[in-house]
Amino acid sequence: MAQNSALIVIDMQNGFLEKESPLCIAQAKQTVPACASVINKAHEKNIPVFFVNRIYREDGSDVENTRKEVWEKGGKPLTRSSEGALSAQNPPEFIKNVNDYEIIKQRFSAFFQTELDMILRRLGIKTIYLTGTTTPNCIRSTCYDGISLDYNIVVIEDCCSSNSLEIQKANINDMKNIGAKIISSSDF
């Protein structure tokens, strides 16, 4: 598993985890322990870990059109100056390693206009393990882009989240049908 693989942790930030945030994903916070465990296992096995997060500009010029109104009315979460439940911080359970990568993305896919693909190729990565939120948006977009770029994609199901179980199951099935492997954190 460790050779030629990387773990990607997407958008596991207070602004998506905390119920006080207008961008909260209902099931996201409950995945924090499983994600923390997988991050620790990756560190133990010397698997590169990529924290791919969303940070918006204070003026909102880079917020998606579909999210802009909620973002403005909800206290402008995920900006550099946001604090507490609205912050761009990862949960304290995520112990970061000095060798971990941090990438800021501006849209759903971790590949879209980021340096992720370049770094993965330079590291010789062939298999990507996906974790984070939300399954129908960021995980699925990254999965499809990763498959299009010829990576082997493995989705760690209990480390991903949606706003409902129905949405979660439908999107996991779609990714499985397109060729992603679906596993649990205990299988990692």
What is the averaged pLDDT score? 96
Helix content: 25-40%
Strand order in the largest sheet: 3-2-1-4-5-6
What is the molecular shape? globular
Largest sheet: 6 strands, parallel
Structural class: alpha/beta
Multimeric organization: single chain
Number of helices: 6
Strand content of the residues, in percent?
Answer: 15-25%
> Which CATH architecture would you pick?
3-Layer(aba) Sandwich
The whole-angstrom Rg is: 15 Å
Counted up, domains total 1
Q: What order do the helices and strands follow?
A: EHHEHEHEHEHE
Distance between the termini: 8 Å
What name does the CATH topology carry? Rossmann fold
Structure characterization notes:
The longest helix has 14 residues, at 135-148. This protein has a single domain, classed as Isochorismatase-like (Rossmann fold), CATH 3.40.50.850. The protein has helices at residues 14-17, 32-44, 68-73, 116-123, 135-148, 165-178, and strands at residues 5-10, 49-54, 101-105, 127-133, 152-161, 181-183. It is built from six helices and six strands; from the N terminus they run βααβαβαβαβαβ. Strand 4, helix 5 (135-148) and strand 5 (152-161) form a beta-alpha-beta unit. By secondary structure, the chain is of the alpha/beta class. It is globular, with a radius of gyration of 15 Å. The chain has a six-stranded parallel β-sheet with strand order 3-2-1-4-5-6, sandwiched between helices.
